[in-house]
Amino acid sequence: MIISTVGVWLFHFFEALLFQVNGVINQTNFQAHILDRLGPGDGTAKFPGLDRYLKDEFAADTKPVAIIMTPRDGYNPQPNVLLYQDQITQLSNKVQTIFGGTKSFSGQFTGGTLHGVPLIVDYTPKSDSFS
Residue 14: which of 65, 67, 66, 71 has the closest Cα? Predict the structure, then answer.
């Protein structure tokens, strides 16, 4: 989810449909169905990517922020123990890159128009527990 002073953009994906094969995470599918479509979209009006909103709704002066909601690991439902940690890291990095951030040798992002780093909000599936 991207929120600014003038707009909101939501993107929801189901891991079982988009990047899991027989319950196993498939990086090729994650890259193709999620990361590669996040900026440009999928070419249809139903899923416009973030790129089309960067100059207006999510320009630097609108103070855009990113929020990523993700499930906790069901076997260890503690705050900040994410079910898809690697994919969430990739998604966070991709969002920062779309907004013009660059990754330094130390792994930190600098620059870009995103107001701060993406906020990760984790929850325990089938409960009301959020962190």
Answer: 71
CA atoms within 13 A on the CB side of 4: 20
CA atoms of 112 and 93, how far apart (whole Å): 12
| C-alpha to C-alpha distance for 91 and 46, rounded to whole angstroms | 21
Q: Show the tokens assigned to 80.
A: 């900040």
Query: Could you give the residue ranges of the DSSP H alpha helices within 6-129?
Result: 15-18, 27-30, 36-38, 85-98
DSSP state of 127: S
What is the spatial distance between Cα 37 and Cα 74, in angstroms, rounded to a whole number?
28
Quick one: what percent of the chain has pLDDT higher than 90? Answer: 41
Handedness of CA 103, 38, 1, 65 (dihedral sign): positive
The pair of structure tokens assigned to 100 is: 């013009």
The whole-model pTM stands at 0.85
